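Subject: two folds for Thursday's group meeting

Dear M.,

Sorry for the delay on this. The cluster queue was jammed most of the week, so I only got both jobs back this morning. I'm pasting them in the order they finished. Each block is the input sequence followed by the predicted structure tokens. Could you check whether the formatting survives your parser before we put anything on slides? The first protein is the one we discussed after the seminar.
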Amino acid sequence: MQLKLVPGNSAGTVTAYYLSSQGPTHDEIDFEFLGNLSGDPYILHTNVFSQGKGNREQQFYLWFDPTADFHTYSVLWNPQRIIFSVDGTPIREFKNSESIGVPYPKNQPMRIYSSLWNADDWATRGGLVKTDWSQAPFTASYRNFNANACVWSSGSSSCSSTSPSSTSTNGGWYSQELDSTSQERMTWVQKNYMIYNYCTDTKRFPQGLPPECTATTMS
């Protein structure tokens, strides 16, 4: 999807674009854009829920002004990994770590949602900066949605687990992974633009970091 975010003073607002299933043990893959005062950078907030459990936040600044023009925000979700990308540059990879007991979203079909909502209890500086309603209306723009996917219909998927159909998986996304160039670009983003990573937040997890954080499978 291409998005252009709320310009000017967007403090307190969250523009969201995400995948989610239904029910109490839902899966979810989130792009959320946390607004800010004019001139301060937007925060791109990412999260992955599996079987109802999230708490896997990674946050980034962007290397451009996301309110000035449209930019492309993409999710690759296949049985092995979830990759978040911005304008074709990968910023985050969440790998399937079921082998060490970490649930992975793969059994529930998800729909795509988008929203723009008031989250001034937490969105900007932890809720210190409130929404300025004199700036309303707040407008985010979406365009050029494109999906290449397995379609869930009448209780079954258009991709069988053993041999996904070529029509649903053209482009090879079903088995796609990061090549060395993409790995380097993701490392560059994480080194220069990542501002929060749950996998390094030892205060939040005093009993030990989540298992996917210490596994060799975690990027």
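Second protein, same layout:
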Amino acid sequence: MARIKPQALLQQSKKKKGPSRISIATFVIYGLIIVVMAFFLFASYRHWTRRSKFQAEDILSGVEHDSSFPEPKKVDVPKYAVINTSKGSITVELYKEGSPEVVDEFIESCQKGRFKGMLFNRVIKNFVIQGGDVNRPVTTEDWTSRGKHYNQLDTSLKHEAFMLGTSKVKPDGGGFDLFITTAPIPDLTEKINVFGRVIKGEDIVQEIEEVDTDEHYRPKAPIGITEVTLKQKL
């Protein structure tokens, strides 16, 4: 058996204990892996950052949209009313700005059909025609005496005729009566809330004014309102 020299054994021992060498190709592969992972992490971070930003913008945009949402359009108040009677139609212009509460009550009464079938229960020449409940506890004698008084006045007084109004004093049971003046009346606002003016159908008002009445100024033949139509435009 051949004998191994000590120098050869020493060299073999150094070869076994020495570190293994890593090739350049391995370095390149590891480097590429690190670069790809870093790029992936950066791309993921950028994606989630942008997504969070867009979500925040959407929320803010929604809040701004809600706060800037236009107010609901107000319902237009009718400006005119056509009072259809057994004699013909009378068109009136409503004074919403001057008598808002009275106009609102009148419109509500029209919408509920309260004027349908209402009779003109007082017709006083050169004074007023009145529609309402003939059995209401109104001051009939007062209106009658005032009618006689105004029949003796000069009707050329500078106060408009053909004004639409309702009594200021309401009975306990409520209700809404109508007055249309047929002559200039100086102290009209003493008893009546004026809330409109006849703009068409003055001849119908005058025709009603000329009907035969009894001693209490009640028409001998019934004259009534068949319907009241509200209009925004004519």
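Two things I noticed about the second structure. Residues 24-67 form the longest helix (44 residues). Confidence is low (pLDDT under 50) at residues 137-141, 146-158.

Cheers,
T.
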